[in-house]
Amino acid sequence: MRDFRFLALSIALMLAGSSSTAQNKHAVGPMVVGYVFPQNARLEPGQIDARSMTRINYAFANISNGRIVTGFSADKENFAFLNGLKKDNPSLTVLVSVGGWLWSTNFSDISLTAQSRATFAGSVMEFLTQYDLDGLDIDWEYPGLIGSGHPFRSEDKENFTLLLKELRTRFDQQEKKTHRRLYLTIAAGMSDDFLAHTEMDKVQRYLDTINLMTYDMYEPSSDALTGHHAPLYTNSADPKHSSADASVKAFEKAGVPAAKILLGLPFYGHMWGQVSDQNHGLFQAGKAVPNGYAPYRLISSTMLDHGYTRYWDNTASVPYLYSDQERIFISYEDPESIAKKCTYVRTHKLGGVMFWDYESDPSGTLLHAAHDSLYSPPTKALTHK
Description:
By secondary structure, the chain is an alpha/beta fold. The protein is built from eleven helices and 14 strands. An eight-stranded parallel beta barrel has the order 1-2-4-5-6-7-8-14, surrounded by five helices. Strands 10-9-13-12-11 form a five-stranded antiparallel β-sheet, covered by helices on one side. The N and C termini lie far apart (48 Å).
């Protein structure tokens, strides 16, 4: 009987390993994935709390001549540093994220032909081996869309799928040789436009997780009205009717399993100026202000209880700040809203959370709120449908 069980287990493992997709290969338990973005700075001991994270996505690698390349001067040293954190957390994985808002220029080109996809995938394999990394996060902003001014094509929709398929095939081949899992993930836009320009039902087959960027729904640079930039639920007074919940449901409807979705958490806020004191500034006309991107470290140390009053939107389940003297409105995330979102993740059986970015809250206040909320005893289920 023991030999039979061993044989059955061996066959099952062989069959699982033969799949060219990531359909049933999820991490156990909810994940906490953090983007680390030191740019040209070298990471230092004590700077990263590895025990509170499942995975680190190091941002960003770039693309040059069809190949993945390092993006910043200290990348080599930082990759070694992050791998060293596995001594504190042996289950930690370290991925490199390629692209981003400013460096998505070459994705359409590298995805265009079988040869260009093969060239890029080959360079990825070399890159991961050279720096001893656990996988790749594709942050293409966005297939079929201009993003911050990048070239794009109508064919991006299908070519995005083909690029991920090529990468997954290479990863699976390498895994059979080394018996080491290589993870493939993407950062996904939360909008209907992103879904319309991708084939998420096909794309998800090749991915371990999808990092859903459920933030920046309102930004001072593009929105003349103030609003929650990362609401959990839709406020009926919101002209855009946007929320993380609505985005999750849209991705599930598009064919993405809940267990592969990581809910995005912003560790920063957005600021509007010249906002009238109506509804404490929420959904009011406003103007962009200098340095309107506000990391949580700045909000918590110089704004909260320093001339700014905190308000809570019970419907959207997020906070906001308003100063009637300065006429400034701030949409942001705090430990209470993080806990609400983590309860949502557990209730809806999502894969976990991801956040941008570690440097915005070096104190770890928001990270610990996420970790503790995901791994604490279950609380009463949410009543929202």
